[in-house]
Amino acid sequence: MIHDRTLILIKPDALNRGLVGEIIKRFENKGLKMVGMKMIRLNDQILREHYSHLADKPFFPRIAEFMKGWPVIALVLEGLEVVESVRFITGETSGRKADAGTIRGDFSMSIQANIVHASDSVENAITEIQRFFTEDELHSWERNNFEVIYAEDER
Ligand code: ADP
Asked: For 20-61, what is each residue's pLDDT tens digit?
């Protein structure tokens, strides 16, 4: 089975509201595997690349100020059809329109401050993961439900 990867950014509104754990919990509960995670401070150059499709929108400068004003948490998640699956649980762009039960639907009343970024296609996910992570920062691992969890302690 081929498992894809997707890039998540937990945005400054979630960080300020103390929702980082809640967001990660939803991805873990869903059954997705974290293979990369770090806190980073974005700059103008990376934001211009990441939001190049919005560069000439009037709201672009505001998004850039918002996204570089605080650190963000970058995650890489792995799973079967993970890109599409994560977009379903993220919800649509506007928190006011996103379905209840989705991350944006449950936690946001804003378009800009909509809690998370999630890659919107397998192709973009590959580009975005390379933008935010080096190969060394990504970790493949196999689930082990027994030895790790019930490891015998040293006496
Ligand atoms: P998505 O994040 O759902 O893939 P887009 O790629 O269209 O959506 O937009 C990227 C981000 O830009 C959104 O998540 C949101 O934070 C911001 N954004 C989009 N449209 C607007 C808008 N009209 N006003 C303010 N911010 C916006």
From this structure: 999 999 999 999 999 999 999 999 999 999 999 999 999 999
For residue 119, how far is its CA from the centre of ligand 1 (angstroms)? 12
Rounded to an integer, what distance in angstroms lies between the CA atom of residue 138 and that of residue 29?
21
Between strands 116-118 and 72-79, the pairing is unpaired
Model confidence pTM above 0.85: yes
**94 CA from centroid of ligand 1 (Å):** 8
User: Rounded distance, CA 111 to CA 130, Å?
Assistant: 26
Structural domains of the chain, ranges and CATH numbers in brackets: 4-135 (3.30.70.141)
DSSP state, residue 20: H
